[in-house]
Amino acid sequence: MSVHKNVKRVTTHVLQEMKDNNEKISMLTGYDFSMAKIIDSAGIDVILVGDSASNVMAGHETTLPITLDQMIYHAASVVRAVERALVVVDMPFGSYQGNSKEALSTAIRIMKESGGHAVKMEGGQEIIESISRILTAGIPVMGHLGLTPQSIYKFGTYVVRAKQEEEANRLIEDAKALEAAGCFSIVLEKIPAELAARVAKEVSIPIIGIGAGNGVDGQVLVVHDMLGINNDFNPRFLRKYHNLYEEMTNAFKQYIGDVRSGDFPNEKEQY
Ligand code: KIV
């Protein structure tokens, strides 16, 4: 019997049951009330309040500038809209690396002030201490390995990660370390499909991929990308389900034309 069909509220346990039952997990990013309401009503399993808000909502080049207060603002807006999905909130850059006490305070602020259900953190064994401390407070943690955008200045580029054996082996070790620490799931970003499938087999927690092929337990995309709102972001892994850039442009042009011509508002559209 299908797990996700019988669930009123998605929890971390539901995601584990879905993996155990070979059901794929669907996840999308969300940053605001109105969009989150539509995504949740459509039946998504997980909404990630990603620090990609830094790019798509605020127009920054990287995810680094977004602050904890800004993440909490986005997450609280999403939580107010959601009835079914699990809401996972990204811990922003600088709020957990290197200091596990600060990491715990960050996670507690996110949970208390946004009402989110879990946090996500980028990195492997180097952040295990922070992850463990957060878990002891009863806060579920999702890991994130492969291309980790908060480390973009270390990588220097957004190309596919872990193509070489050494980095691939390190990634597998990191995934096992995250599982052993108690993470409930891991995002794998932009790594070879074969490697991602191997990780999904070798660890028992759900693996969610983005640009990591189809051999994993679920998929995540940035909602603005899959709706085609971003005209100039076209990586190979992205499937665009709409061309909202074009459709919205046409709607805006029509409105501007109607205002200029005096066609809007008409008699029925006034009091
Ligand atoms: O911030 C984000 O949107 C993410 C996804 C790309 C997984 O971390």
From TrEMBL:
Co-factor remark: Binds 1 Mg(2+) ion per subunit.
UniProt key word Transferase: yes
Keywords associated with the record: Cytoplasm, Magnesium, Metal-binding, Methyltransferase, Pantothenate biosynthesis, Transferase
Localization annotation: Cytoplasm
Active site, per annotation: E189
Binding of 3-methyl-2-oxobutanoate, residues: D51, S52, D90, K120
Tree of life domain: Bacteria
Enzyme Commission designation: 2.1.2.11
Gene Ontology cellular component terms for the protein in this record: cytoplasm
Broadest EC class assigned to this enzyme: transferase
One MF annotation (Gene Ontology) recorded for this entry: magnesium ion binding
Keyword DNA-binding carried by entry: no
The protein's role, per its UniProt record: Catalyzes the reversible reaction in which hydroxymethyl group from 5,10-methylenetetrahydrofolate is transferred onto alpha-ketoisovalerate to form ketopantoate.
Oligomeric and partner information: Homodecamer; pentamer of dimers.
Annotated protein name in UniProt: 3-methyl-2-oxobutanoate hydroxymethyltransferase
The encoding gene: panB
